[in-house]
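Supplementary Text 2. Reproducibility record for the structural model of the 227-residue chain.

All settings were left at their defaults, and a single model was retained for analysis rather than an ensemble. We include the record here because the model underlies the residue-level annotations in Supplementary Table 4.
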Amino acid sequence: MNMEVDDNTQIFDHAIRTADMLVTMFGSNCEVVVHDFKNLKKSLIHIAGNVTGRKIGSPSTDLILSELKKNPADIEDIPNYKTQSQKGNMMKSSTVFLRDRKQSVIGALCINYDVTQMMLFSADMEQFLSFDSNHHMKSENFYSTVQDVIQDMVDQVLLKFKKAPATLSLDEKIECVGMLEEKGAFLIKGSTEYLASVLGVSKFTIYNYLNKIRAQNEYHLENQVKT
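Retained model, structure tokens:
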């Protein structure tokens, strides 16, 4: 028995089983073919899946032929390149060249994966994931309880003063209330009592601050309307 022929048979057997396994794993959008370069006019000896419309006995591709014109030592596997089927479908392709024990190139295992639908889906996803460029990114937190909402809003405001709440001056406490008013914190029942406990004042003091702030806001609004 010719040892070289036997070795080559085993190489092609491994390639064929690999082709079948890959298509089983990746599904109907995947095609894996095996070429035997003994006859380049009919080099395709096995096809698993079918996205290019070829059959067993189809010839080698122009890419393969261009590679075979090189010195065998210069022929390298070609991973992850873009191709297009005769139907116009876009594919990701890879070619692995098969070598015998003398490192001569005897064939190839070629993977073609139809990504046409993925590209369409990708375009849809890109459109879906786009945001209104006319607006700055908004910050929004999602809470489990009302208490969490109040506490977090107060914490965010107090953080800007970089000091303990009890050490805030009168003006700073009023400013704190004003910032929370602007955020809409006092629309939530219980926020006045919570802020009062944090600042170390009575809830009636918070109401006084609020009345003062709202009166100032109304005054500025009236002046804007007059002008």
